């Protein structure tokens, strides 16, 4: 009899536990529905979306301005003036072979230069004439890149490209992770040293495990920013041919300002990627990988010869454009 009563009480407790769990889940779902009922999903050309996008870019600009200040505040003013002077010297130099600078000194291993078949010569050193160019500071590169997009973060210029924020988000996460275990955890009060050491080890493990691959993901997202402007640029060409572009320009419509923004940010992105290719081994590796895959596909006997010539000419156009807009 006692065993039967124990079984009944056990089954009752299990039933009560399941009922409580079901009730908790139901309440949670009800709360989520209430939250979702007040949320309106908007597109990339909505004023609220653009406002948050502009705020994000403003935060990024503030962060990089702080970094730049910390980098240069103890250096003589002549150093900064000299770097800017070298930049203007470089921009005023005719497009000669010395403008085809290869990766920075120290990147002369397998990740420097380009892979076989890309048609770009491998150099072992950077031309010292431009080694003081301020745009070789990657913080300056990201600062100017974010600033260019912030300038056009307005409903007057049409839809935004939110994928610009992907790489910034990745870097922000790892910077926060690194800052937490180097500066914040040691200052946390009322926590034992052993517990602090455990937290630090966990964050360091996450950092080491994902840092390299996250840099590759960030570089990849930056490369694919170019694809966002393909459709707008094609539409601009078609409107130029049909004559509708100039009518929109005379009326100063939103479409005209969106086209204007697309052209400017397209060249900003190309210049940025060219700079990243010369400075960052992750961007260089990704570009070389895509180029090698393209050449391998085109070299296949099954690939049509007329289309092969078109693809190679298109590739050469991009190489020439990248060299033309080089600023470092």
UniProtKB/TrEMBL annotation:
Q: Where is this region: Disordered?
A: 1-23, 95-125
Q: What stretches pass through the bilayer?
A: 50-67, 142-160, 166-188, 223-242, 262-279
Annotated Low complexity bias: 1-18, 104-119
* GO BP: endoplasmic reticulum tubular network organization; membrane organization
- What is its membrane topology? Multi-pass membrane protein
**What main location does UniProt list?**
membrane
Keywords from the named record: Membrane, Transmembrane, Transmembrane helix
Q: Where in the cell is it found?
A: Membrane
Domain of life, per the record? Eukaryota
Q: Name one GO cellular component term.
A: membrane
Family, as annotated: Belongs to the PER33/POM33 family.
What name goes with this protein? Uncharacterized protein
Q: What is the lineage of its organism?
A: Eukaryota, Fungi, Dikarya, Ascomycota, Saccharomycotina
